[in-house]
Amino acid sequence: MSRRGFAAAVAVGLTGLVTAGLAVAAEMSGGDGPDGDSGDDSRPRRRRAPAGELRGMWVATVANRDWPSKPGLTAAQQRTELLAHLDQAVERRLNAVIFQVRPTADALWPSPYEPWAQCLTGVQGRAPGWDPLGTAVKEAHARGLELHAWFNPYRIANHTDPTKLVASHPARKHPDWVVPYGGKLYYNPGLPEVRTFVQDAMLDAVEKYAVDAVHWDDYFYPYPVAGQVFDDDAAYAAYGDDFDDRAAWRRNNIDQLVLETAARIKKARPGTKFGVSPFGVWRNATTDSRGSDTRAGVQTYDDLHADTRKWVREGWIDYIVPQLYWNIGFAAADYAKLVPWWAETARDSSTKLYVGEALYKAGDPAQSAAWQDVAELSRHLIFARDHPEVRGHVFFSAREVAADSIGAMARVVADHYKQPAKPARRA
Question: Could you tell me whether strands 184-187 and 155-157 are parallel, antiparallel, or unpaired per DSSP bridges?
Fold first, then answer.
């Protein structure tokens, strides 16, 4: 399951850390569009594309989600597919591509720290015969697109067998860095040497390529799995004495990663931005009065130990793209309640707010009636336009931008992107 699919599944439980099946059932009984009328066909008034508006799409490489279409294609075939995604972004009048270059502690560029990514050849560590990240940066810029390099800091593998990793993999050389959890392998965020290593691995790309931004997704400490414990006892015993509890220590570990990475990006390539795309709910208001009017089963502050609100308010990151992957009117996590909450959070801060949009849900028969309406996503942009803190939108993901099964992306373009996008960096 992709990060978006998993996040959506666990997001919407009405109480506690619900199972994926219950969450999906809850979502399918969610509300309709604005004012309960999912058939509203109103169109927005015309407007000029403002300078600084981000119009982006994610290109996911983990498990060959978007690109390459399958492992083992020739270098020429991979390149052709990648350029097609960039051309599609231009055709849809977007101005940024967020390209996943470190999906599972491996790399889409020749890295001295980590092996070549398995998604390229089917064999981790096998050179693909070309430089995907270098090509992506060059070709995106040639098309007037920003290229944001998307990294996953701590995920090692979507399985728990270290012997499946290439022999040279750092996780095999340092088994004490590794925590198996929920059917996957993770680096332990509580170890200072891990924090240094993952920064070194990511910053290598920043030093070598003129990427416009470093981008992280929603995985910090892993999403909770019922009945399982993330075993960081030894690290907590060694480094947790100054904290009231383990949760506070874990949040500090992630805070330090954010602060240190931000400083290193500025030193390595001044002008390169640093952005994060977290799960869309920081905390529910029933947990914290500062939280959103939601009833999400996962809260980033409590469950992923990521204090995303603080990062925005303190200006630790340049932009944030909360994954607001719910329809307007959805009871447990209403898009129309979350946009104002994030707008207020970003107000008067130096952090720009963009909104992550669930294009992948549009037309999916497993989703609720709201997502069968071609106009649902367009209404999201209409709603967000009344909140000046929202500076743009990013769509998940490239496969759906191209396929556009019910025309939801085409509707967004027709309603909102009539003019070519101006560069977002002029903001």
Answer: antiparallel
Do residues 284 and 334 touch, judged by C-beta distance below 8 A? no
User: Per-residue b/e over 95-109, b at no fewer than 16 CB within 10 Å?
Assistant: bbbbbbbbbbbbbbb
Tens digits of per-residue pLDDT, 329-350? 999 999 999 999 999 999 999 9
Helix-strand-coil split of the chain, %, nearest 5: 40, 15, 45
| SS3 category, 379 | helix
CA–CA gap between residue 283 and residue 261 (Å, rounded): 24
Closest CA to 105 of 124, 85, 123: 124
Average of pLDDT values for 236-254?
98
Which among 254, 290, 262, 276 is positioned nearest to 356, based on CA atoms? 276
Angstrom distance (rounded) from CA 58 to CA 218? 13
User: 3-11 vs 20-28: helix axis angle to the nearest 10?
Assistant: 80
Q: What is the pLDDT of residue 34?
A: 24
> Which tokens in the block code for residue 292?
């959103």
Find tokens 């006892």 and name the residue: 233
Q: Is the pLDDT of residue 17 over 50?
A: no
Distance CA 53, CA 43 (A): 20
Give the global pTM. 0.90
- Give the pLDDT of residue 425: 66
Distance between CA atoms of residues 145 and 423, nearest Å: 8
Spatial CA neighbour of 99 closest among 115, 127, 119, 77? 119
